[in-house]
Amino acid sequence: MLPEYQKLIENAKLKQTETKKLFEKFKKQKPKGLDQLTNELHDQAFEHINCLECANCCRTTGPLLKNKDIERLAGHFKLKPSVFFDKFLRIDEDGDAVFKAMPCPFLGLDNYCSVYESKPNACADYPHTQQRNQLQKLKITYHNSMICPAVAEVVEGLKKIY
């Protein structure tokens, strides 16, 4: 990971309390335009942050795999879903299907995803700051700010505005 990305993540970890307070304020006040603003900050962050120079999400955070994800990935490997499951997945403490180990078994040394065309929906949707209903995603945004440098930057942008 690039040093500037690491610095953004470290800064987010140092400012956890500040971020929690801001997000609690959002929950109470329900600011208008939060989705649009977050989406704009997301776009700005990804103008200069390159996932292929980071891939911290793929190293540290496994996606929750739904049945459709498992079927799609199994098809990618021409395996039965049960065989794919036994080879790559486990059930976690919440009853969700997740990878047996991290980093993601499909992350290449070059940070490319070897199953990109068949990737789980959770991976396609990550880091969720480009979506609607940001008020409902505050918990995941808080968590992701300490994993993804782009989310860390989005959160800092929100702090400057609010």
Summarize the structure.
The chain is mostly helical. 53% of the residues lie in helices and 4% in strands. It is built from nine helices and two strands.
Secondary structure elements and pairings:
Layout: H1 3-14, H2 16-29, H3 34-45, H4 56-60, H5 67-76, H6 81-88, E1 89-91, E2 97-99, H7 121-125, H8 138-144, H9 149-161
Antiparallel strand pairs: 1-2
Describe this structure in words.
- By secondary structure, the chain is mainly alpha-helical.
- The protein folds into 2 domains: 3-57 and 126-161, no CATH class; 64-125, no CATH class.
- Helices cover 53% and strands 4% of the residues.
- It has a two-stranded antiparallel sheet with strand order 1-2.
- It is globular and about 50 Å long.
- The relative contact order is 0.22.
Tell me the Rg in angstroms. 17 Å
The helix/strand order is HHHHHHEEHHH
Low-confidence stretches: none
Report the structural category. Answer: mainly alpha
Mean pLDDT: 97
User: How many strands, what sense, and barrel or not for the largest sheet?
Assistant: 2 strands, antiparallel
Query: What form results from the Cα inertia axes?
Result: globular
Q: Count up the domains.
A: 2
Termini separation comes to: 30 Å
Q: Strand order, biggest sheet?
A: 1-2
Features:
162 residues; single chain; mainly alpha
